[in-house]
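Re: that backbone. Tokens:
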């Protein structure tokens, strides 16, 4: 009788722990990988420039991982030289 009690208890404990591990979404890989961003830069003179920046350049020069981070980094680095930037 004691063996059945411990066996059932062990099975319940394993099933509960498996349920919590199986439902975790933290370790799922990202569905999209970014290869770069198309950026539109608005100059102080009213000129508009479009530039593609690949991911390695984004990471090494700007320290950005996403297009929104790249937009903010470009604004911070350029300061008053540009009116704005928008990267997608």
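Recovered sequence:
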């Amino acid at each position: 009788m004691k063996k059945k009690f411990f066996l059932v208890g062990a099975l319940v404990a394993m099933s509960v722990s498996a349920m919590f591990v199986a439902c975790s979404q933290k370790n799922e890989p990202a569905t999209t990988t970014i290869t770069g961003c198309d950026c539109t830069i608005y100059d102080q003179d009213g000129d508009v420039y479009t530039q593609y920046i690949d991911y390695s350049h984004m990471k090494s020069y700007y320290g950005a991982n996403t297009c929104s981070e790249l937009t903010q980094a470009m604004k911070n680095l350029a300061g008053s030289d540009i009116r704005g930037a928008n990267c997608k």
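Residues 2-22 form the longest helix (21 residues). The longest strand covers residues 36-43.
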